[in-house]
Design brief:
2 strands
């Protein structure tokens, strides 16, 4: 039997490699916002660069991506999200509960649209609005579990999205070419 020889002074140590985590990589959104504000208050010369970076980030929006997200959010809803029935303060009808669930699913996209309108990011706002409208239209035509309880919700919410977009652009109409190509049954959006 052969024996393995170890050279003097070299003991075999198990190698352990620990992944090093950067604390910046694990911050929550609120924590990152706090850090950014603290840095900008200490280094006010960085404010213009931070604004440029924020504007560049906000400029990256695609109506197709927003549409896929909106449609996906609605199709992810199921009957478990229908919080209907007796309550301490009365009875919640299935249609009312469905509307609430659908509105909750779309609310983050409305908030995104509102902030872009508020900032005057008109090109990005119209992209988000088109995405919301298209996502709602696709969900309506592909179907989703709660639609049967709130049939008009996709078209009415699309109308709300267009109204949010119009707040700054009172005299503008929603892009006709978009409606004709993607949502022809919702032609009323351009009136």
């Amino acid at each position: 039997m052969k024996r393995l020889r170890r050279s003097r002074g070299s003991r075999s140590k198990p190698r352990t490699t620990r992944a090093k985590h950067d604390c910046l990589d694990v911050l929550t959104g609120d924590e990152a916002r706090t850090v950014l504000r603290a840095l900008l208050s200490l280094h006010s010369d960085l404010v213009p660069d931070a604004k440029r970076a924020a504007n560049a980030l906000l400029a990256r929006v695609s109506f197709a991506d927003v549409a896929a997200d909106v449609c996906g959010a609605l199709q992810a809803l199921d009957l478990d999200d229908l919080d209907a029935g007796p309550r301490a303060d009365g009875y919640v009808e299935p249609s009312e509960a469905a509307w609430k669930a659908i509105e909750n699913a779309v609310t983050p996209y409305f908030r995104d649209l509102e902030r872009r309108v508020k900032l005057g990011h008109e090109d990005e706002a119209v992209e988000v609005c088109k995405g919301i409208v298209l996502g709602l239209h696709r969900a309506e035509h592909r179907g989703f579990d709660l639609r049967e309880y709130a049939e008009d919700s996709p078209s009415q919410l699309a109308g709300q999205a267009v109204e949010i977009w119009r707040r700054r652009r009172r005299h503008d109409t929603f892009p006709r070419s978009f409606v004709e190509k993607f949502t022809p049954k919702w032609e009323w959006l351009i009136r």
